[in-house]
Amino acid sequence: MAHLLGGEALHLEYPTKVVFDSVTLGVNEGDRIGVVGRNGDGKSTLLRLLAGLVEPDSGRVTRRRDVAVGVLDQSDTLDETLAVGRAIVGEAAEHEWASSARIRDVIGGLVGDIPWDAVVGSLSGGQRRRVALAALLVGEWDVLFLDEPTNHLDVEGIAWLAAHLQRRWAASAGGLVVVTHDRWFLDEVSTATWEVHDRIVEPFEGGYAAYILQRVERDRMAAASEQRRQNLARKELAWLRRGAPARTSKPKFRIEAANMLIEDVPPIRDSTSLQHLAVARLGKDVVDLLGVSVAFDGRPVLRDVEWRIAPGERTGILGVNGAGKSTLLGLVAGTVAPTSGRVKRGTTVKVVTLTQRLDELDEHLDEPVRTVISALRTSYTVGAGSKAQDLTPGQLLEQLGFSSAQLSTPVKDLSGGQKRRLQLLLILLEQPNVLILDEPTNDLDTDMLAAIEDLLDSWPGTLLVVSHDRYFLERVTDQQYGILDGHLRHLPGGVDEYLRLRQREVDAGRRGELGKNAPDAAGGVLGPAAPGETTSVSRGEGLPVSGAERRTAEKELAAIERKLVKLQAEIEADHERLAGHDQSDYIGLGALSAGLRSLETGVADLETRWLELQELLG
Question: Nearest 5 degrees, angle CA 370-CA 372-CA 377?
Fold first, then answer.
């Protein structure tokens, strides 16, 4: 594969920290690389180094002469005075950009709901982020560096972006390097993973799932090596403790040997295993929404919602921005009153919400972390029964990944991820029995997300989650509901079923708009399409289906359903083979991962055709 760009012996140091020390890596044609690591370890800095936005202290970044590089940074660089259309396509005439299928796809996928002539300065933060991403993706690039591209995208937007990046280049062309905490997205788009840690960049074959399998094996081998090291160290230290009667060269040699054994021992990793926090008893009745509707200023948001929440229920809520997810959670929490219907709440229910804001920390910004926790209690009981233990505030915070030095840090000086963890801890220590999480994954890296998931696994109360992080949502909840056209709908097929239903909604709305613009039922010239839309109408859209066509479509539909069942079985078998494969055989893992992706692509294509046939048959 042809080399696109890379770094040789990169060293970067700030006054208080060495970020990278002699890092060498490269991006070749066809590479799709996901970058993972803890917050603050240098993921974004690595992208900026390779993109040429930051100069290393030593070493060099090389780039093939004709390589065009596009960068999506976390900072907002849009000109606030521009209209949305001009910010995306520049001065290009409409016939120029509208003739490109790729540009139409980008505009429709990211900014179809944003007015084309709106001024950038009037947009929300999420809308500006989508405009910036669209402005990048409409360009022609050999290498794309994307820093947190899924921020401010909903589940549909993330699925669209993954599909766009998968088909943007041929398999052996282009290069992609992406930093994201969205693990589902990483698995969809990446074929290799770089882990940034301890001033180095460690490469792994495959996407996030393959990376985790390899990392577990690496950690297992490291643990075995560490156990051997500790056994040797204990023997050496025991020998030194007995002491030698004479100060000969032999004791000196043994002392030096003992020092060598322990001099490169890394600091113990922060542990995040907070289990079984005591919660108030939850009775048989939790919260029931009975025929509830909510409207604001006469505009209906939720219609006839019937939802009986059970004790211990773990439910994820899906919906586009503005669909009514926060309103639904507000009904459960008691902060929103229904316009009609009623909300029945159990007598022992104690609902606490983790919001997207950090309101719980506002009054403590100037206080050290230790003081914030100590003001609540002097000790905390973790676990239950014979495994219960009392922990001091410092010990509890250490389990949530805070170092001893950070306990004396004022809350205002914590990073976003640290504030998020502290916020979650304060909420859990209120001992709720119904916990609502509204976008809880913001500002958390993949390791900390896994730790939070582990914590929630052992939490015994009722859990309601709204999140655009598909991996997190599916990981911590047992069922999902979607808000579609104001109604709450159970989704037995999970996120995939929600995406299919949303696509049908969008397609139906698009056909309705096209129908309004048509002068008569017989045909004629259609009105102008919105950016990203096309004016073509397929055979089944608004046209009658003959008996022969219907029978043919029904046969094809049945065949597709049989094929989907077979492919799903093959995918499950491949997952088992991948889990049982030798984790040191990177080539074999790569081949298995490639086969798995091929099967999943086949399933996606069949599902698309299945939807088309369903639309045709009405």
Answer: 90
**Dihedral (CA of 63, 201, 173, 49) sign:** negative
Domain end call among 212, 242, 263: 212
Q: How far is CA 165 from CA 22, 221, 499, in A?
A: 31, 35, 18
Q: What is the largest CA-CA distance in the chain?
A: 109
Close Cβ partners of 121 (under 8 Å, ≥ 6 residues apart) = 80, 81
Q: Do strands 340-345 and 434-438 pair parallel, antiparallel, or not at all (unpaired)?
A: unpaired
Bridge partners, 264 (sequence order): none
DSSP code of 277? B
pTM above 0.70?
Answer: no
Question: Do 486 and 544 reside in the same domain of the chain?
Answer: no
Residues of the chain below pLDDT 50: 239-251, 253-254, 258, 261-262, 265-281, 384-385, 514, 517-543
- 141-166 per-position pLDDT tens digit: 999 999 999 988 889 899 999 999 99
Pick the closest to residue 78 from 94, 68, 90, 91 (CA basis).
90
* pLDDT digits 0-9 by tens, 237-265: 554 444 444 434 444 544 555 455 445 54
Q: Does residue 274 belong to any structural domain of this protein? A: no
